[in-house]
């Protein structure tokens, strides 16, 4: 189905659009298949090494390919109708994790459609990064992906936040970066130089 979306994009959009929500749900379902044991996660050097051939990795890769192939106009609205159920699942952090990672995964294919919603997306992502039910060790393992998404947020919202004076959002961004740094500890060192300038700029606005 992923290959069909890539090779027959127009056909899927015109004749099989009603199957898109089911396809997205299948990808997100695969992305929930994570290990509960943080120690097992930490036994590998990075998240990609552990997930390349696992269902969660397959789900994430498939979602990325589908969103890039079909684009935001076809993907974003069906996706946004699915993820509230996952994000609001207080019993299973894996569903919340899949929803947030899904938001970041479709970012490339849906960037133009997502930009007007960036503040809502930022609030959602920041809330998960402070989720006490998700082990900090797992957040630290996904540090490169998390920091990549935070960098995307800073790049695309910094000017907008400055103009609008959204101090609450600025404070949330700073608090979240600090939380990730605390969880990652030594692993955060390589990201320090990329964020310190933006953080100093933020500090001057608060």
From TrEMBL:
Keywords of the record: Cytoplasm, Protein transport, Repeat, Transport
Chief location bin: cytoplasm
GO cellular component, one term: cytoplasm
Pfam family, one: Importin_rep_4
Annotated SUPFAM superfamilies: ARM repeat
Organism of origin: Anisakis simplex (Herring worm)
Protein name stated in the entry: Importin-5
GO biological process, alphabetically ordered: protein import into nucleus
Subcellular localization(s) per the UniProt record: Cytoplasm
Matching PANTHER family: IMPORTIN BETA (PTHR10527)
